[in-house]
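4.2 Preliminary Data

To establish feasibility before requesting continued support, the project team ran the inverse folding procedure on a target of 83 residues. The structure was first converted into the token representation described in Section 3, and no sequence information of any kind was made available to the design step. The complete token record follows.
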């Protein structure tokens, strides 16, 4: 299943960890502790990376805990700088 999400906020927890908050498609549910593959538009899906949900199904948005990679070309750097 492919879904489009919009990034709402990126909140810094410490110097290498961030909480990414995105929109949540209507009716979308997941099993807590599971992950999903995120990739950015205009990039290959092979650049997708798995991120674990830290939100719950009752919350209106999806939240992911992201640890910043040391590779400046990584998806984490792009996600963190997106907002």
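Position-by-position output of the design step:
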């Amino acid at each position: 299943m492919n879904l489009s999400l919009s990034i709402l906020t990126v909140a810094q927890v410490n110097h290498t960890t961030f909480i990414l908050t995105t929109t949540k498609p209507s009716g979308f549910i997941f099993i807590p502790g599971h992950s999903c593959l995120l990739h950015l538009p205009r990039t290959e899906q092979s650049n997708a990376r798995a991120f674990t949900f830290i939100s719950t199904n009752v919350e209106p948005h999806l939240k992911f805990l992201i640890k910043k990679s040391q590779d400046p070309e990584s998806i984490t750097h792009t996600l963190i700088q997106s907002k």
